[in-house]
Write a structure and sequence with these properties.
With 168 residues, this protein is mostly helical. 76% of the residues lie in helices and 0% in strands. Helix 2 runs antiparallel to helix 4 and helix 6 packs antiparallel against helix 7. It is elongated, with a radius of gyration of 19 Å. The relative contact order is 0.19.
């Protein structure tokens, strides 16, 4: 039996996207994106609890971004031979530990260390998320799979202007 090019799209549709896996990836993207910018909306409260200025506390956003930017490519390169699923799960476990450390930080230095570590874990996750979404998608649906996984970005950034400090 021969197949025509019109048969390929129907086979792709029948295979379907791995929705639960892609939604899990989208959730990881959402959490890592939201965590990066969230402190900006609660700086006065964080500053008060840490006994620091808002400017100093704002460095929590900077060190997260620095952790991501400085380590994403080197870590992705260093872990190129590691299976992606356990690597992604490990990065998210480190992310969880780092955010727990941040939330329970008894002082400013521990807060910054937790934020930097969270940024490192997020950077590694970001370096492999899109490629992983592509790999688990059926042939012909790779772009859709990446788009679904990356929907976490706009969803995480959309509440940014809705905080109580937005009108200042």
């Amino acid at each position: 039996m021969t197949t025509t090019s019109s048969d390929a799209p129907s086979r792709t549709r029948q295979a379907g996207l791995p929705w639960s896996a892609l939604l899990a990836l989208g959730t990881a993207v959402f959490i890592t994106s939201l965590t990066e910018t969230l402190p900006a909306g609660v700086l006065p409260e964080m500053s008060a609890s840490l006994g620091t200025s808002s400017g100093a506390t704002g460095q929590a956003v900077t060190v997260y971004a620095a952790g991501t930017a400085l380590t994403a490519i080197p870590l992705a390169t260093a872990t190129a031979s590691v299976p992606r699923k356990p690597l992604l799960l490990g990065a998210m476990a480190v992310f969880l530990v780092a955010n727990t450390l941040t939330a329970a930080a008894p002082g400013y230095i521990v807060l910054l260390a937790g934020r930097f570590l969270a940024g490192v874990a997020a950077g590694l996750a970001w370096a492999i998320l899109a490629g992983y979404a592509r790999r688990i998608a059926p042939a012909g649906s790779e772009g859709r799979a990446i788009a679904v996984a990356m929907t976490g970005i706009p969803v995480a950034l959309s509440p940014g202007g809705s905080g109580r400090h937005a009108d200042r």
